[in-house]
Amino acid sequence: MKQSKIEDVIIIGGGPVGMFSSYYAGLRNLSAHIIEALPTLGGQVAMLYPEKSVYDIGGIPGISGKKLIKHLKKQMNIFPPTVTLDCRVKSLDKVDNIFHVETTKGVFLARSILITTGQGSFTPRKLPLAHAQRYEGKNLYYYVKNLNDFKNRSVAILGGGDSAVEWALMLEQVASSVQLIHRREKFRAHEALVEALMHSSIKVLTPYVPFELKEQHQQLTGLTLKETRGDKMITTNFDALIVSYGFAYSNRELSDWGLEAKQGQLVVDSSMAASIEGVFGAGDVTTYKGKVKLIAVGFGEAPIAINAIASYLDPSIQTDAPRSSDLILRAQKGESQ
Ligand SMILES: Cc1cc2nc3c(=O)[nH]c(=O)nc-3n(C[C@H](O)[C@H](O)[C@H](O)COP(=O)(O)OP(=O)(O)OC[C@H]3O[C@@H](n4cnc5c(N)ncnc54)[C@H](O)[C@@H]3O)c2cc1C
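The joint structure predicted for all components is written out below.
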């Protein structure tokens, strides 16, 4: 296996919190290496809702997921980290105070570890109908990556949660028509979204479950729907089908790595330290009393973790965080803190 140089910190997971942590590590003159299982940075924001707007980050009245990740990349690259994409961390081993991180692309070494794996690797819950897989990458979608992919097309969406309703409302602006199909009369989505849905031109079909795909000349053209608790069948046609049944997350590896975890979440103390000395966590992956899984919370935990890492690596360094203006001036001059 290939071995790397020894970094100050290996950040496992390149979602928004891993990216911001990398920037903050740069501010504290720490070398960082981000290891990300997916082929791109940005985590859930980039993969699951690039077109959705986020309204609950301080100082930003509203920003699309795509733009937020673009800004995070720009900020992160002020202190460019080493980035290894498409690379899954398999195990962690601490030998003489150096962490050996075994991945699908070799072993990487670091003096500390920051885990920002979110809710773990995630895969969409698939449409449980025969031949569905055949149309993935054609006109059956599990994410809305680009609204323009649906421009002037008739779109059907399956699902009743926030994402399904948000996607329907966003697509209403570009698609020729939108139908939303849900197995219950009532939507699980947030009240304000349901209110907007009821005042939109979106055709709502409830309570129906997909029964069979309609195919013509090897093209997916529609669905046969069955009433959830009855026998009534209807058919519906579309150019594109979006399945929004949520995602299955897996974070089982934390306990395999020898770390204390509770229901797949990393147990941390108030300095974001995990149960192995030198391992820290930030973002959705962590758990403690009162934890809230939001980007703003992860952005707060990242500086706590990185400042704790700085003083773990050099105990003469104070944990009290210097101001960023001070840090950036010193980092630009190449002074250590
Ligand atoms: C539909 C939806 C809408 C949302 N809307 C909002 C909102 O409006 N506002 C808000 O604040 N939050 C929102 N959230 C929550 C927000 O996306 C998360 O809080 C945020 O993404 C957490 O960031 P993170 O970096 O901790 O984790 P993630 O974004 O989950 O990133 C973790 C990364 O770690 C990688 N990883 C996992 N395991 C490994 C491994 N073993 N090796 C290498 N890499 C690994 C994953 O591939 C992933 O890229 C929403 C979530 C969803 C699903």
